[in-house]
Amino acid sequence: QVQLEESGGGLVQAGGSLTLSCTVSDPSNRHWPMSVMAWFRQAPGKEREFVACIQTRYRSTQIADSVKGRFTISRDWAKDTASLHMNDLKPEDTAVYFCASRSGTYLRTTPGDYPYWGQGTQVTVSS
């Protein structure tokens, strides 16, 4: 069973930076090498929103327009970990950030396309 564990959330002032990490745990070791790792976020009273994703083998990426130029996504092949690097954070970035994963090569931006999810980590940006 594939499991995802997030880390790195917290409280930061506007203009600051945070990096979120998501590590894949998979006893079969078959998921990570050919998967898509994604980040979504959900603010109170709002729908879950796509932020960024990366294909682990080919490193193709997709970034939401709302964070483009401020957020980047990367992966550490040896550590089975994908990271979301968030710069110039704004109060409107405050949300619970979720890591998600799917098998294959196609980048997707819809939550329903991802079968595996982490528990979420809170990011709060103060003004």
Helices and strands in order, then pairings?
Elements: E1 3-7, E2 10-13, E3 18-25, E4 35-42, E5 49-55, E6 61-63, E7 71-76, E8 81-86, E9 95-103, E10 116-117, E11 121-126
Parallel strand pairs: 2-11
Antiparallel strand pairs: 1-3, 3-8, 4-5, 4-9, 5-6, 7-8, 9-10, 9-11
Describe the structure.
By secondary structure, the chain is mainly β. 0% of the residues lie in helices and 50% in strands. It is built from no helices and 11 strands. The chain has strands at 3-7, 10-13, 18-25, 35-42, 49-55, 61-63, 71-76, 81-86, 95-103, 116-117, 121-126. Strands 2, 4, 5, 6, 9, 10 and 11 form a 7-stranded mixed β-sheet that branches. Strand 7 and strand 8 (81-86) form a beta hairpin. It is globular. The model has no long low-confidence stretch (mean pLDDT 96).
* Helix-strand topology string: EEEEEEEEEEE
Low-confidence runs of at least 5 consecutive residues: none
User: What is the rounded Rg?
Assistant: 14 Å
Care to count the β-strands? 11
Query: Proportion of β residues?
Result: over 45%
Shape assignment: globular
Biggest pleated sheet = 7 strands, mixed
Task: Decide which structural class fits the backbone.
Answer: mainly beta
Q: Name the helicity range.
A: under 10%
Distance between the termini: 40 Å
* Number of helical segments with 4 or more residues: 0
